[in-house]
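ingest -> fold -> write
write: protein_1
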Amino acid sequence: MSSGNAVTRVASRDGTEIAYERTGEGPPLVLVHGTAGDRTDWRLVLPGLAEQFTVYALDRRGRGESGDSDEYALEREFEDVAAVVDVVDDPVVLLGHSAGALYSLEAALLTDNLERLVLYEPPITEAGESLVPEETVARIETLLSEGDREAALTVFLREVAGESQAEIETLKAGPAWDVGIEVAHTVPREVRALDGYRVDPDRFAAFTVPTLLLSGGESPLFMEQATALVDKALPDTRIVTLPGQGHEATNTAPELFVETVVGSLRAPE
């Protein structure tokens, strides 16, 4: 993200400083990136989104220009997202990708400042299922301890996120790869915490915010199943498929992603 805009910080509930960058003009749109990234993950779709929205792209804790804490818990991530949403004057559209979609989903229960929610493939599993074997997480940790951050990132993308070799090569060809390598050490703690998360429909029974669920037409089956779980849990949802794309449409098809998001948000609810 090379807009040159100043980075602003807000204190989350535990006091951790969460950085965000504001770009564009229009209704507010808050962006929450996934694992192994930072706010620059949106660099390819940012220009198109900023033509329609005032975009607030945040750095999740431990990444980019945000602070971190000694102890990690998913609940702190939820609070971080809600803290950024709450600094915006008008009700926002909250858009999260991958793990950022899960945190956006939970942050939606912590704020009253939402107009719409957009979730692109949150990594959620059903009770009795596992997101990733512990052996895989341990292998990532071993690679990190050996200093092979690139191999650790590759294992995460391929074996945890289920991304294709073509998607990984697309990431390698751009600046997102260097960002992923830089924050690779944050992957194990997050993956372990995500593996224990289960969506509870009862907690969302009274949730009234219209929710758009984005799904890659070529995404792995477990991503499709995760989207179905959220669709079932929330009262007011609509699924839109990104044809020919997987989990990385923001990088592999940025124009399609922007067109889909803008068009879907403009469509009648």
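write: protein_2
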Amino acid sequence: MSELSTLARPYAEAVFRMAQDENDLAGWSSRVTTLATIVSDAQVARLIADPAVPADRVVELIVSVAGDALGERGANFVKVLSANDRLTLLPEISTQFETLKAGAEGTLEATITSAQELSQAQVDDLVAGLKAKFQRAVNVQVAVDPELIGGAVIMIGDQVIDGSVKGRLQRMAFALQG
């Protein structure tokens, strides 16, 4: 995973700088997300990996599926990735681009994973607490993972706040072993 991050970083940073220069972070966010979705499709992934399919045909397919919203610069980005055999990095490039975009906009991206579905009031309380702690706006994604048993895990940037029962049990087991 860290290798993917390392390989994707220069491309994400280059697209981010280009988006900033064009004053179009939202537009590029949409383009990169669309491209990531396209290459994540199982059939497209097989075509990308198939050495019998010419790279220019794969680029043509991706650009046509992305549509007019991709634009000339977006199509050129796809060509550069293809020429460097990096099309499969698009999901990671998209993730890193969104992180850079959030940082530039003064927002943090957070994922709240709870054992049970949270009410909107609970999510709002958690977001308010995160805003107070980090002194920045927070965009959240909410997920449910019953394996947590109870509580929640909050991932924000590279920090993890583990308030789950599963996490507590693991910490207790580790403490008892040591």
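write: annotation protein_2
The mean pLDDT is 92.
The helical segments are 2-21, 25-40, 42-49, 55-66, 71-83, 90-104, 120-134, 165-177.
pipeline exit 0
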